[in-house]
Design a protein that fits this description.
CATH architecture: Roll
CATH superfamily: 2,3-Dihydroxybiphenyl 1,2-Dioxygenase, domain 1
Distance between the termini: 64 Å
Number of helices: 5
Order of helices and strands: EHEEEEHEEEEHEEEEEHEEEEEHE
Radius of gyration: 20 Å
CATH class: Alpha Beta
Largest sheet: 10 strands, mixed
């Protein structure tokens, strides 16, 4: 029994028309829309819902304004739901109801976020990804690496929150849902994955000295490093603002590109994170700029020149050609 990953997230926003364009440009498929809600999907069926701030029936907010109101995690079976329901039956806001014809359980976590679980609606997909040639392994023979004109995210890979008590919140996910520690900033940050075997983290909790509570970012998994670049360049051409990237995280090894999100917090393309098993020994790090990013481009790349923003591109036909 284990949680499989994120099945659905629900944002709230005061500007649905902008969000409609934003998430379409991001590479999601709009499945349905109404005056007060937008429903998008990733390639494997992972859902992204954007609702109006004043839509009735939404879970309580952990912070004001645009943000995430709900994270729905997928499980394998109704028997799993029974076990998890027993574990959280006495938690604040316990929830066990039918949603869109399927059972969903949940509660409010110690940070004020609505946490839900359901039998996963995601489906397996078979897609081509760019293979990497290294000195020891030549996985790509007689084949160029891909170039992507835009990204089409596979799923929501992880969520990151500012929390008021990282120890209490991480214990909630560990004790009730079986999450395990991948790495940590002692008493400051917890990188957690749903199960012993999996990607580096599905959830990252960060406690700031200010005590701020709320959304930091939502990360979308793409095929490979080339799609991180291609997706970011397309998104930049569409006029959306980079917060940081592209770059590479030392802790998870993943390549990233972060943008500002009108639905709250930041949004990230990422690929090539570490894959861990039960043999992994969690590490401890002291937070700092070089721990967050091995390298990163401040302000992003221009989608047209393919170079760092606000830096003049080459004028010649070739890089070696002089003016």
């Amino acid at each position: 029994m284990s949680v499989l990953g994120i099945d659905q997230i629900t944002y709230v926003s005061d500007d649905l028309p902008t969000c409609r364009t934003f998430f379409a440009d991001w590479g999601l498929t709009l499945k349905s829309e109404a005056a007060d809600v937008l429903n998008f999907e990733c390639l494997n069926g992972c859902r992204v819902v954007v609702a109006s701030l004043d839509k009735p029936g939404l879970p309580p907010a952990m912070e004001g304004g645009p943000t995430l109101r709900e994270v729905v995690w997928g499980v394998e079976s109704n028997e799993d739901l029974d076990r998890y329901a027993a574990a959280i039956a006495k938690a604040p806001g316990f929830f066990d109801e039918s949603v869109e014809g399927a059972r969903r359980i949940g509660c409010i976590d110690p940070n004020g976020l609505a946490v839900r679980l359901q039998v996963s609606r995601k489906h397996a997909i078979d897609i081509d990804c760019g293979a990497m040639n290294t000195w020891n392994s030549k996985a790509r023979i007689n084949q160029p690496a891909p170039i992507y004109e835009r990204a089409t995210p596979i799923e929501v890979g992880h969520v990151v929150f500012f929390v008021t008590d990282v120890l209490a919140t991480s214990a909630f996910y560990r004790d009730n849902f079986g999450f395990v520690s991948s790495d940590s900033y002692p008493n400051r940050g917890a990188f957690m994955r749903c199960a012993p075997d999996g990607g580096h983290h599905d959830l990252f909790l960060l406690q700031l000295p200010s005590g701020k509570r709320g959304l930091n970012h939502v990360a979308f998994t793409v095929r490979d490093i080339h799609e991180v670049f291609g997706g970011g360049l397309h998104f930049s051409r569409r006029g959306w603002e980079t917060q940081l990237g592209p770059g590479r995280h030392p802790v998870s090894s993943a390549y990233f590109w972060y943008f500002k999100n009108p639905a709250g917090g930041l949004i990230e393309y990422y690929a090539d994170e570490d894959q861990l098993t039960a043999d992994w020994q969690p590490r401890e790090f002291e937070p700092g700029p070089t721990v967050f990013a091995e390298w990163a481009v401040d302000g992003g790349l221009d989608g047209n020149t393919r170079r760092q923003k606000n830096v003049e591109g080459p004028q010649g036909k070739f890089l070696t050609e002089k003016k």
